[in-house]
Design a protein that fits this description.
The complex is a heterodimer. Helices cover 0% and strands 56% of the residues of chain A. Chain A contains no helices and eleven strands. In chain A, strands 2, 4, 5, 9, 10 and 11 form a six-stranded mixed sheet that branches. In chain A, strands 1-3-8-7-6 form a five-stranded antiparallel sheet, with no helix packed on it. Chain B is 0% helix and 54% strand. Chain B contains no helices and eleven strands. The chains are: A mainly beta, B mainly beta. Chains A and B meet through strand 5 and strand 10 of A and strand 4, strand 5 and strand 10 of B.
Chain lengths: 110, 111
């Protein structure tokens, strides 16, 4: 089975940097995804890591350590529109099933 | 643009009714998924399909069934709706090893 943990809520200030952590225990591993979901909308893809290290995409970066079962999403130069839920998801060994964590609700304050 | 379309945004059904939630994707994706999303519980996988007529149970299949007769369409069926199935239902599709695209969701209320 899969077990994915991430903080329930975080708060940060506009212009700041925030790091959202995700730890996982899975039966097999075939990649980790981060999604963003605004209230009432569908989740949208942010990043994908399958090898250890940092993937950078504009203001967003994602890091993976497979040996530690750990990932983080780093958001820089926070904007009000970044207020959303951030979902960590792990694909299992078969590469078919994607299991999501409960999500981290990020609130960006002015 | 990839499009995953769910037939209804909002649905109200009575306890005991048979309910069909339809999902269509237009990108020839092999994989299709049905999730439900509840506050504090995140997205939980109900069923997924990696080919026509193929299906596999996810984490919470009880009370649900699915149908995939054509590659582009994946239906979720609630045989006898109950109030604890009131939830947001999200359909997604993906190529074999790529990130899933999600539909807009169907908010189902069972009264």
């Amino acid at each position: 089975g899969q077990n994915i943990d991430q903080p329930t809520e975080m708060t940060a200030t506009e212009g700041a940097i925030v790091q959202i952590n995700c730890t996982y225990q899975t039966s097999g591993f075939n990649g980790l995804f981060w999604y963003q979901q605004h209230a009432g909308e569908a989740p949208t893809f942010l990043s994908y890591n399958v090898l250890d290290g940092l993937e950078e995409k504009g203001r967003f970066s994602s890091f993976l350590s497979r040996s530690k079962g750990y990932s983080y999403l780093l958001l820089k130069e926070l904007q009000m529109k970044d207020s959303a839920s951030y979902l960590c998801a792990v694909r299992d060994g078969s590469a078919r099933q994607l299991t999501f964590g409960s999500g981290t609700q990020l609130t960006v304050l002015p | 643009d990839v499009k995953v379309t769910q037939s209804s945004r909002y649905l109200v059904k009575r306890t005991g009714e048979k309910v069909f939630l339809e999902c269509v994707q237009d990108m020839d994706h092999e994989n299709m998924f049905w999730y439900r999303q509840d506050p504090g519980l995140g997205l939980r996988l109900i069923y997924f399909s990696y080919d026509v007529k193929m299906k596999e149970k996810g984490d919470i299949p009880e009370g649900y069934s699915v149908s995939r007769e054509k590659k582009e369409r994946f239906s979720l069926i609630l045989e006898s709706a109950s109030t604890n199935q009131t939830s947001m239902y999200l359909c997604a599709s993906s190529l074999l090893d790529r990130d899933p695209f999600f539909g807009q969701g169907t908010r189902l209320t069972v009264v």
